[in-house]
């Protein structure tokens, strides 16, 4: 890929921590190297009514008023459809070596296991599934999972992308 990144922030939310507790943090691994660590304590049954969506915004300055929505989105879809597509392409590729998140071949077969998922110092961007070219700037990703009688939870992450120096 033709860009480098620096994670600026990650904020997690959960409307009901008795059903899902989500914590994440950025860790410096070395000069210019960063990783994400976190835990998800998953205590509810995901089903065909569990939905996922994500939106990506870009800003040249990082100023909140400067962010503009990009076409890079995860349109509102069922959790299971998300697992068989975006999760498989992005999350599995970036987190399989540094977490206990599920890894599978083909389409995801329910159920999603209720357990504590742990990621430790996961480097993002070295795997497949991310754009080869992205203009420099600040990128904000807003990810949300929700459903009837289920917690609404997700994260907002901000990354600074710069042109890669070869």
Task: Explain the overall architecture.
This protein is mainly beta. The chain contains 1 helix and 8 strands; from the N terminus they run βββββαβββ. The longest helix is centred in the middle third of the chain and has 17 residues, at 79-95. It is globular, with a radius of gyration of 16 Å. The termini are close together.
Number of helices: 1
Task: Output mean pLDDT.
Answer: 93
Strand order of the largest sheet: 1-8-7-4-5
Helix content: 10-25%
Q: List the secondary-structure elements in sequence, H or E.
A: EEEEEHEEE
- Secondary structure: number of strands: 8
**Which structural class best describes the helix and strand composition?**
mainly beta
In terms of DSSP E residues, the strand content is over 45%
Radius of gyration: 16 Å
Low-confidence stretches: none
What global shape is seen? globular
Span of the ends, CA to CA: 11 Å
Question: What does the main sheet amount to?
Answer: 5 strands, antiparallel
